[in-house]
Each structure stands twice: as C-alpha cells, then as structure tokens.
Amino acid sequence: MQRAEPFKIDQWMEEYGPGAKICLYDSFVSALSLNELQQLAPDASHATLDPNLKLTYGTLLGSLRLRERIAKIHSSPETPLTAANVVITPGSVMANYLVLAAICGPSDHIVCQYPTYGQLYLLPRYNGVDVSLWALNEDKNWSSNVEELASMIKPNTKAIIINNPNNPTGAVISKDILVEILALARERGIVVFSDEVYNPLFHTSNRPPPLVSLGYNHTISTGSVSKAHSLPGLRVGWVVSQDAEIMQRITTLRDYTTTSVSQLDDSVAAFALSEEVLPRLMERNMTTCAESIVILDEFMKRNARRCRWAKPDGAATAFVQILNEDGSASDDVAFSKQLAEQEGIVVLPGGHCFGEAGVNDLKGYIRLPLGHPRLLDAALEKLEKFIHKQTHF
C-alpha cells in the first residue's frame, strides 16, 4: 500500500504543543468569538445567526448568499463572477485537495512555488505527479522570477501552483508578476491555481487582486475564513473558477467527500464576509499584524548578528533565520527542540517543516505568528535571551 509522507507541521505541533508554556505556531490572526464578531457589525440587527435556522443539511454547494458574496469579492469589471463559479468546502484544505485531484494526475507535470504550504506539492507527488519546485529568491526578499518559471515548463505541464500571500515567508506576488505568469500559461493552455487563504491580509499598498479576476479562464482561487478572517473554528473554504470543466470535476469529486458544509458555519461565514462587516474585520486584523511586525522588527534590529528576515508583505506569519555566532545558519530542528524543552516555547522549524533538499533546505529558519502581538512580545523577550546563551545551535 502506498503511504503518504507524514505532514511535518502537524507532527511537530502534536509532539511539542501539549504542555508548552507559549505556542508560537499559529498561522491565523487571533480568533474571534461570536460576540466579538457581532460587535463588528454597524447595526445590531445584523445578526451572526438566525435563531430560527433549521439545522438540516445545508445546500449541497453552499448557500446562495455565501457563494454570491464570494463571487463578488473575486470579481472585477473585466471578469464578473456569479455563484455558479463558486463551490463551498469544509475549509481550504479540502478546497485544495479537490482542486489538485481535478487538475493533475500520474502522467502530468506541475510547477509549484516554493517554499509553500506542503499540501500543494506533496499531495500531487503522492499521487504520482511529476513536480518541479519554483524557488522564491531568498536573497531578494523571496521574490519571484518568471524567466525561471518558464524554463521549468514541460510538454506535459498541466498546472502552475502559487500561494499568494505566501506561507511561510509572507511574500506577495504583485499584479504585474501575476499577469506575466498568466501570459506564460495562456500560451500553453496551462491551468494556474492560487491558494489565496491569506487574501486580503496584506501589509503593503501594492495589493494584488484575486487571480481569477485577471481575465484568464483557466485560473482557480481557493480560500477560507480561517486565516485572514480570524475564524479557524468555522470549517468554511471555497473554490472559485470560471473554468466550467474544472468546476464540474471538482463538484463531482466533492460528492464523494462532503454532503454539505454546516449551515451554522455557512451562516457565520456569510456574516463575516458581508459588505457591512468585512472592512471592519480586515481593519482589525491588519492592525493586529502591523503591531506584530513592529515588535518583530525591533527584535530583529537588536539581534541583527544572530537573526535575519525579509519583512512580510502579507499573510499572518514571518520567516526568521536564526544564525550562529559565526554567521552560519543554525540547525533549526536542534534550535526549536531546545527552545521547547528548555523554555517551553514552541515554534515551527522552517527547514524541517517546509524545506526540500536540492532546492533550498531553508536551514535555520523558524516560522513565527503575527496574529498575537502581546504573546509574541512576551515570547521574544525569552527568545532573545535563549539565542545568546549559545554561540552555535
């Protein structure tokens, strides 16, 4: 029997999370309660839940209200979308799973941005797909080089996969670069799939639109309310695409995995994404992350000889490299284990959880959360002392 590779992020959290004093492995902005979410509505009559809602199975593809709202969020004047272009799923992990199953198989080749959330290339690899990793340029703030991407295309390339904003680096692919990627794909009829679970959580004025709004039919965007919208307890994600053939495949595959998303989750998600609530929610979350970035930037300046990073332009995570006294990259697994065992602080070792030998092993990196500024501030004080206890990790 073929076995899937262990998912190292979850394994690490399961091993070191229980009993930890401070957990710094979250990748979402601090979660909201229903009451806190309700308070973001300008009008108290605009309720998160209808108490008369009958708890039957929900609409198979998601409520019309939620799908129409997601379609509008992903639309542009040139590319108007409708509810027919949206399928609701139990979180973005399921959305990604369905997309990957629909767009590539054992005889196919894909190119996937790297580093990224492992599911996006490990699952295709498990299913026998030939995978090439398109590495972001570490020395240029994790930037993207489309010429390098073009050199990786093969006759059997079926898809280009990106994660924008990027987990773990916080890098953002600009609209100009997205247009270049689409031009490359259009010449060859290649699908471009963008995991946009962190959209619209940007920390820069140069904010790219959803990929599916840029006018190329063979594009797919996935997302959820878990990360950027502070609602990971709601298992609501989505797939958006104009490609009717791909959406039909996804709908068929979904029938084998999901009857419907919980009506409660669907209703609260529609409230959070509504025109009245979403701007206030995102203002809260961008302010939260901005506070964390300032805290982390001050820490980096104080410890410039032992740490380096590129400030994140998006998402709710930062990728920080811990250096030894001689300037070499630390062993991120050894560092993270000692930090957990000696200080009770759990971080994700970047090389272990996100690295691939032969591309960029991401040695010495740890991923830190931006969604909990007070927790981060308290942890960094301890982390600073810990780093300087040893000259080498």
Descriptive report:
With 393 residues, this protein is an alpha/beta fold. The chain has 2 domains: 8-34 and 279-383, Aspartate Aminotransferase, domain 1; 49-277, Aspartate Aminotransferase, domain 2. The chain has helices at residues 8-16, 34-38, 64-73, 92-103, 119-126, 146-152, 175-188, 244-255, 263-272, 278-302, 332-343, 350-354, 373-387, and strands spanning 22-23, 86-89, 109-114, 130-135, 157-163, 191-195, 219-224, 237-241, 307-309, 317-322, 345-346, 348-349, 365-369. It is globular and about 60 Å long. InterPro entries: Aminotransferase_I/II_large (IPR004839), NHTrfase_class1_PyrdxlP-BS (IPR004838), PyrdxlP-dep_Trfase (IPR015424), PyrdxlP-dep_Trfase_major (IPR015421), PyrdxlP-dep_Trfase_small (IPR015422). Residues 51-381 form the Aminotransferase class I/classII large domain. This is Aminotransferase class I/classII large domain-containing protein.
